[in-house]
Amino acid sequence: VTLPNGISVIPEEMFSGCSALNDFIIPETVTSIGDSGFRNCSSLKNIEIPNSVTNVGSYAFSGCTSLKNVTIPGNLKKTSEGMFYNCTALTEVTIQDGVTIIGGCSFQNCTSLQKVSLPKSITSIYSSAFEGCSSLTDLILPENLQTIGNYAFRNCTSLNKIVIPNNVRDLGVSMGGWVFSGCTSLYTVILLSSSLIPSVSC
What we know:
This protein has no helices and 15 strands. It has strands at 9-10, 23-25, 32-33, 46-48, 55-56, 69-72, 78-79, 92-95, 101-102, 115-117, 124-125, 138-139, 147-148, 161-164, 188-191.
């Protein structure tokens, strides 16, 4: 499907459940994608989010179980709640500099996700953002990161090493509970700040 230039908004649920849709080109004129805009497009293999997009609604691409890689443009300051929830074929995500927040459940249950490139602009990772990403092995938390929400990396069973940057304010209740719970392969945790409370639940 190719939309004509001039369209600025893809309404909520516009293509939700279009299970035969396998390729889609979003025009450079689009600035907003509504809630569940492409939810459960189970055959969708390729999607390019142009730099013009500044807002993406909740669960916009959730359940796109054939989607393999995605690049998130820097003009999108926050990945939305559940944006790629249950995209089980997704293997690699590139997030461009300018994005500051990884929203709650953004990549939850992306069970094939192996690598995420987080830019230095990221300051917050919300609750359950990467929960259940059982193939995730390669993750570097950016130095400007300040907060991590509850269950952010819960059940990331292939994650074996994590470095907590100096700017993260706390590890424990105030930052979020059970951040690394169920990370059964995690054997190295490096805390770069002496003020951090080492209360990681694994």
